[in-house]
């Protein structure tokens, strides 16, 4: 595998070296006769201790490996914007997310068949899923955490009791993680970093500005690399794996999208496809936060003992991904697996600030939001971030689902042994119980899941 020095033509060009891009490059390059170019706008992973340490992933948001995206101001979120962290580095978001690994279930695929027909049926997808999962597991390290906090242990004990008492289907779980020996393992490291593939070239710090066409076929990419612009040919195909923000942006800049929007920015329409950038969905989480005893406070600064335990054993709080445990739950009226909980031993809104109070959070996430928005162009320049508008809570049913999830989180917190562990409810606050009170709290304090928009889906 070669970096930086690349040819003028390849069989396949892959734009974006996140999880999908790294895996596709691995699979395509398994055929020795194929030449593959993988292009990444960011740099490499060298000398980045914060990437390796699971508990420090929040410090990577807003860093030089982040695209620094944010959503448009939303009246449905009390006039707030949401940060939209996306990885700009080899491995993409797998270098800065919370590392949770979770397999799909048949229910996840049923709606796919409704949209795509028999090739996307549960049976077909299950067969493909097993084949893919076996391959992924042979490369990607998936581990149970070595560190689970006392707060999360109390949640694990209380939740089965609460489920029985309130007749709620679901179960708590310790989330598996994409770590190796306790350290984060990125998609780059898992799928390509150790692969000896001479037929793969990797261009880092290279920004693809446009896809060019021969007649109606995508044939070249125009990229900016080391201060110069150049064009590279793809003899067989160009694969876009820039994610739900960058891929539609690049399509539209290349003339594929809604004609009137392209014309507004002075872009010739190569193919009118109004669906590009539409149906943008994201998971909102509302943090139900409780005080906990000071002795169980999760550290915001590492002690010498923490550093020694990590450096020698890969154990202790540095090895926590914060969202250590959680689970999926069927809430009455809202369907199967309608709510997911991410439980952290921290104050969800304040950690890792030095003055963050001792707290734990049961973050309520709606698994199937009804609200959807769009990604659209801000200008005809790749360097100008696109307009990102998920239209959070535009469908009032999402507010109702989150409200029901808040009440469920409260019931778990009122169940022993968690009830004796937590103190007062900090958010939304014990006095907020009416529908209107909860709705105001949701619109004011709901956040993207795990403070990051790595759950985004779009066309």
How is this structure best described in words?
The chain is an alpha+beta fold. The protein contains twelve helices and 25 strands. A seven-stranded mixed β-sheet has the order 1-11-3-2-14-13-12. Strands 7, 18, 19, 20, 21, 24 and 25 form a seven-stranded antiparallel β-sheet that branches. Helix 1 runs parallel beside helix 6 and helix 10 packs across helix 12. It is globular. The chain starts with a strand and ends in an 11-residue tail after the last strand. The mean pLDDT is 92.
What tags apply to this protein structure?
459 residues, alpha+beta, seven-stranded antiparallel β-sheet, 12 helices, 25 strands, 26% strand
Termini, distance in Å? 32 Å
Strand order of the largest sheet: 1-11-3-2-14-13-12
What fraction, in percent, of the residue positions are helical? 25-40%
Globally, the shape reads: globular
- The helix count comes to 12
The percent range for strand residues is: 25-35%
Identify low-pLDDT runs.
none
Q: Radius of gyration from the CA trace? A: 23 Å
Largest sheet: 7 strands, mixed
| Classification by helices and strands | alpha+beta
User: What's the number of extended β-strand segments?
Assistant: 25
Mean pLDDT reading: 92
């Amino acid at each position: 595998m070669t970096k930086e020095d690349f040819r003028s033509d390849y069989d396949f060009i892959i734009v974006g070296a996140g999880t999908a891009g790294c895996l596709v490059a691995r699979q395509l390059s398994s055929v020795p006769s194929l030449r593959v170019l993988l292009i990444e706008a960011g740099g490499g992973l060298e000398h980045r201790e914060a990437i390796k340490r699971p508990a420090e992933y929040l410090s990577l948001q807003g860093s030089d490996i982040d695209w620094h995206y944010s959503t448009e101001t939303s009246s449905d979120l009390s006039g707030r914007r949401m940060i939209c962290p996306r990885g700009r580095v080899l491995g993409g978001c797998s270098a800065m997310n919370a590392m949770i690994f979770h397999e799909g279930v048949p229910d996840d695929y049923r709606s796919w068949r409704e949209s795509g027909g028999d090739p996307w049926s549960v049976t077909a997808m299950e067969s493909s899923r097993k084949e893919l999962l076996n391959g992924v597991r042979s490369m990607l390290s998936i581990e149970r955490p070595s560190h689970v906090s006392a707060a999360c242990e109390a949640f694990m004990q209380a939740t089965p009791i609460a489920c029985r008492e309130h007749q709620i289907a679901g179960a708590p779980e310790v989330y598996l993680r994409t770590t190796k020996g306790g350290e984060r393992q990125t998609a780059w490291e898992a799928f390509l970093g150790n692969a000896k593939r001479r037929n793969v070239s990797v261009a880092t710090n290279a920004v693809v500005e446009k896809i060019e066409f021969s007649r109606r076929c995508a044939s070249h990419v125009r990229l900016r690399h080391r201060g110069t612009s150049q064009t590279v040919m793809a003899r067989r195909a160009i694969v876009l794996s820039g994610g739900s923000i960058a891929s539609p942006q690049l399509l539209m800049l290349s003339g594929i999208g809604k004609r009137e929007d392209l014309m507004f920015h002075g872009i010739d329409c190569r193919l009118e496809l109004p669906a590009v950038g539409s149906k943008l969905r994201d998971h909102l989480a509302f943090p139900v936060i409780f005080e906990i005893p000071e002795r169980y406070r999760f550290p915001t600064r590492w002690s010498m003992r923490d550093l020694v335990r990590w450096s020698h054993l890969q154990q202790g709080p540095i090895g926590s991904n914060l969202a250590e445990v959680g689970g999926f739950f069927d809430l009455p009226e809202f369907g199967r697996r309608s709510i997911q909980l991410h439980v952290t031993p921290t104050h969800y809104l304040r950690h890792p600030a030095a003055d963050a109070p001792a707290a734990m959070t049961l973050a309520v996430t709606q698994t199937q939001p009804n609200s959807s928005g769009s990604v659209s162009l801000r200008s005809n320049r790749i360097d100008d971030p696109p307009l990102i508008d998920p239209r959070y809570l535009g469908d009032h049913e999402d507010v109702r689902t989150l409200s029901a999830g808040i009440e469920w989180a409260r019931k778990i917190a009122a169940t022993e042994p968690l009830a004796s562990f937590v103190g007062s409810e900090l958010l939304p606050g014990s006095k907020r119980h009416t529908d209107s009170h909860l709705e105001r709290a949701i619109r004011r304090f709901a956040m993207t899941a795990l403070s990051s928009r790595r759950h985004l889906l779009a066309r």
